[in-house]
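ESCALATION

Customer reports they have been waiting on this structure for their group meeting. Please prioritize. Original submission:
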Amino acid sequence: MRKLITLLLCLMAAVAGAAAPALAAEPRAKKVLVIGLDGVRVDALKQADTPVLDGLIRSGAFAETARIQGERYQGSDTVSGASWSSILTGVWADKHRVDDNKFAAPNFDAYPHFFSYVKAFDPEAQTISLVSWAPIEEHIVSGADIHRVVTAPEPDSEDVNAVLAMEDQRDGIMAEAAAELLKTEDPAAMFVYFHQADGTGHTVGYGPQIPQYVRAIENVDAHIGHVLEAVRSRPSYEREDWLILVTTDHGGVGKGHGGGHGNPLVDNSFLIASGSSVTPGRAIDEAAIVDVVPTALRHLGIPLGEELDGQPLKLR
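Update from on-call: job pushed to the front of the queue and completed.
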């Protein structure tokens, strides 16, 4: 009898072992959310009360300084057109050929928006772009299944407070639009852009000494929180592996940022990466805005082409 019981136990263990692979958890779906903040200075970010961004930094990796220009070419201005082109293509301006905000002769056919790489790798992968600075939509975005320019009603007067209120309202509409799409759609890659900090800088000035500018960053932080809550509320969230990437295109001094070469208050960005694939609290010493695309593509399992200037961030 003892031998029979032993034999039965061995058989049960063998059956359980054979069934184990079938019961193993399926790989979680890889997804990327890139959040673009226009015109955010790092020193003002540090001063602002930003619990959402602070939480992403604590739970992920943070590059406090990220170059907005490459070493081999500094012919582009420290403005949004050049920087967002670099951020969204993963190459510097001598390749994408956008030196300013005019987009006179861009080379996006050769060096496209990173959504094109996503769609080439998996034509069924859904991509979404939401921006409020129209040139990004008009010139840079390609391959997006859903792409929108988000607007808000213009203020009735030129009063500074009315202008700043419009900026916040527009970013709020942006966050709500992103949250709704996260409920109804299934993006593999999504780009959401907030303009308020840059609009405020141009209106009243950039820097931690400007209360309205700091408040604008705090407002944006709250809007980002709304978007991230929508991510976490997705019914499929537990079966998904999201990488959240946050960056800015430039800083600013006075009420502008053009011609800011060599001024760290202007020509410096930052990068935040947060997700289950990132070691919490990781500090990244060397980074550039062109690293956003290769970092996103690597997370999605997409091979990196040699044409990219950026390198994937070391997240572990």
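Sent to customer with the following note: The longest strand covers residues 29-37.
Escalation resolved.
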